[in-house]
Specification:
Layout (H helix, E strand, L loop, with lengths): L3 H13 L9 E3 L12 E11 L8 E12 L6 H10 L9 E2 L5 E6 L6 E13 L3
Parallel strand pairs: 1-2
Antiparallel strand pairs: 2-3, 3-6, 4-6, 5-6
Length: 131
């Protein structure tokens, strides 16, 4: 049985191979890789688990963030492509949905250079059904 984390990782790894916007890799929690040629990569993490108040109070939702880290700027339309890939059905049957929260952006510099790095924080969730 595939976990939600495996599902997210697999989707992002597939996107890394897209030559339109090549990405260096996928990391859970944080990227500690020192030898990246470019700071173009994904990081994902769990944010929280809460009760789903709209239905059965025993049902849970786990929330995650997918972070797109990209030198200079994230190409236009790429965030939407990542969202579509995450929400698309796959063979595992694991459902992922974007939340109603905004997608936020942060900026930093690459190491001790003047290269700006843009970071998009995409909030997603996995609706879980309990018996």
């Amino acid at each position: 049985m595939s976990s939600v984390l495996d599902r997210i990782r697999g989707t992002l790894e597939t996107m890394c191979h897209d030559q339109t916007v090549p990405m260096e890799g996928v990391w859970y929690g944080a990227c500690k890789e020192k030898s990246l040629k470019k700071w173009n990569y994904f990081v994902f993490n769990r944010a929280r688990t809460s009760k789903n108040g709209n239905t059965n109070k025993r049902d849970l939702q786990t929330f995650y963030y997918v972070h797109i880290i990209h030198e200079d700027y994230i190409p236009e339309g790429y965030v939407e492509s990542v969202v579509e890939a995450l929400e698309a059905p796959d063979e595992s049957g694991t459902k992922l949905r974007i939340t109603n929260e905004d997608i936020l952006y942060d900026y930093t510099f690459k190491g001790s250079t003047n290269m700006v790095v843009e970071i998009a924080h995409i909030p997603i969730y996995h609706p879980e059904k309990r018996c």
